[in-house]
Design goal:
Order of helices and strands: EHEHEHEHEHEHHHHEEH
Helix content: 40-55%
Structural class: alpha/beta
Largest sheet: 8 strands, mixed
Number of helices: 10
Distance between the termini: 34 Å
Number of strands: 8
Mean pLDDT: 91
Shape: globular
Strand order of the largest sheet: 3-2-1-4-5-6-7-8
């Protein structure tokens, strides 16, 4: 995969893709490039105004693009269920679990979950489970979940998934990104046991220049910290176009294997997509099973078709 870039994306004509958080940053680039290659792309975004604007901008960037905005708030399980219930197709070729939040002050989702765990993991766990029938009905379908190189900072705490004992924003962010990888690992295992050819893979952007880094300081009104993050990201981060390449590779490239983790090839930081290192705890079968059971219980979304 050395030197792989957006021009190497195979033809996506006839494929249907759902990209969460597609209104900006990595999600927008992912949706744009899939549409450029002919996919019909559903832009799943929380904000109706930003989602609609992203759809208009995408069509301006890619004339004739087949895109549609559909509202989805991953921090509200009722919204996730509404999105899945309204999904209009019997097939789904590609689900890109891209949306996320980073290092926010302590908060709770509409269902009472700690925000980073609730949005980054539980929302996507529920969405994937509810869309599973359409994925299983589609030969060669893929689920790509976006994690982070920051997952190496912390394993999950299975006894305190909602950070009720303590809250350190970066540790909790890392745990939510570990949860993304454990979810991919366990999903891949269960799909294989069920005899499905659906591929569950994960990706990360390295250090990409998006608005994710400044969201926490902005929420708290910390102008100085927000400015520092803006400058640091501009200097050290690669572009959103480059940061989206690992997701696009995992979603479209030939030979992608279940439970692979794709990221920038240079020190997990930047460069063309390649096989990424990952913490050993992200392949812990027992932890994956326990997180899965807890996620089914917390979201109320059972993966009945994959019971093993």
């Amino acid at each position: 995969m050395t030197g792989w870039n957006a021009s190497d994306i195979p033809d996506q004509s006839g494929r249907i893709a759902v990209v969460t958080g597609a209104n900006s940053g990595l999600g927008y680039v992912t949706a744009r490039e899939l549409a450029r290659r002919g996919a019909r792309v559903l832009l799943a975004c929380r904000s109706a105004a930003r989602g609609a604007e992203a759809g208009d901008r995408l069509v301006a960037d890619v004339p004739g693009a087949d895109v549609e905005f559909v509202r989805l708030d991953l921090g509200d399980l009722a919204s996730v269920r509404e999105f899945a219930a309204a999904y209009p197709y019997e097939r789904l070729d590609l689900l890109v679990n891209n949306a996320g939040v980073m290092a926010l002050p302590l908060g709770r989702t509409a269902d009472g979950f700690e925000t980073q765990f609730g949005v980054n993991h539980l929302g996507h766990f529920a969405l994937t489970g509810l869309l599973l029938p359409a994925l299983l009905a589609t030969p060669g379908a893929r689920v790509v979940t976006v994690s982070s190189m920051m997952h190496v900072l912390s394993n999950i705490d299975l006894d305190d998934l909602n950070s009720e004992r303590s809250y350190r924003r970066w540790t909790v962010y890392a745990r939510s990104k570990t949860a993304n990888l454990l979810f991919t690992h366990e999903l891949a295992r269960r799909l294989a046991a069920a005899g499905s050819d659906v591929v569950a893979a994960a990706a990360h952007p390295g250090y990409a220049s998006t608005n994710l880094q400044t969201a926490g300081p902005k929420l708290e009104g910390r102008k100085g910290a927000e400015r520092v993050m803006e400058i640091g990201t501009r200097i050290l981060g690669q572009s959103a176009d480059a940061g989206a390449l690992p997701s696009l590779y995992a979603a479209t490239a030939h030979g992608v294997r279940p439970d692979c983790f794709v990221g920038p090839s240079f020190a997990m930081w930047r460069g063309a997509p390649g096989k990424s290192r990952r913490a050993p705890w992200t392949r812990d079968d027992r932890a994956g099973e326990r997180l899965w059971a807890a996620s089914e219980r917390l979201t109320g979304v059972p993966y009945d078709a994959l019971k093993v």
